[in-house]
Amino acid sequence: MSNISEKRICQNCKGEFLIEPEDFSFYEKIKVPPPTFCPECRRQRRNAWRNTFSLYSRKCDLCNKSVVSIYSLDSGIIIYCNKCWWSDKWDPKNYGVNYDFSKPFFFTAQRAHE
Ligand SMILES: [Zn+2]
Ligand SMILES: [Zn+2]
Asked: Which of 36, 38, 45, 107 could form a disulfide with 17 if both were Cys (CB 3.0 to 4.6 A apart)?
């Protein structure tokens, strides 16, 4: 084993990152291949992963149908079932404060599963 840190290209953001020699021995010890993602992308992936473990049973704020959301009721975030989301029964301008409407929660949950 060499004592030189190895330069890798992140598979996700294509940025360069370094794997230190001591990291290699660590990966060897726990029997996992060296990472293909840079530390920043790994951190983001971990966060996405964590979301899949905190799913809340909620009611759609429009039609009251049961839905699963990554936002708890306590979060105060308004959620919609898939059908209502694509309908025009609601107006984004009414709620724009706490919610990022470019990321429907269903898509966030799906992405986290990948
Ligand atoms: Zn990266
Ligand atoms: Zn609904």
From this structure: 38
User: How many domains does the structure of the chain reveal?
Assistant: 2
Q: Please give the full DSSP string across 38-87, using - where no structure is assigned.
A: -HHHHHHHHHHHHHTT--EEEE-TTT--EEEESS-GGGT-----HHHHHS
Report the separation in Å between the CA atom of 79 and the middle of ligand 2, taken as the mean of its atom positions: 9
Do residues 107 and 64 share a domain?
yes
- pTM score > 0.85 for this model? no
Q: Domain range spanning residue 94?
A: 56-113
- Residue 18 CA to ligand 2 centre (angstroms): 47
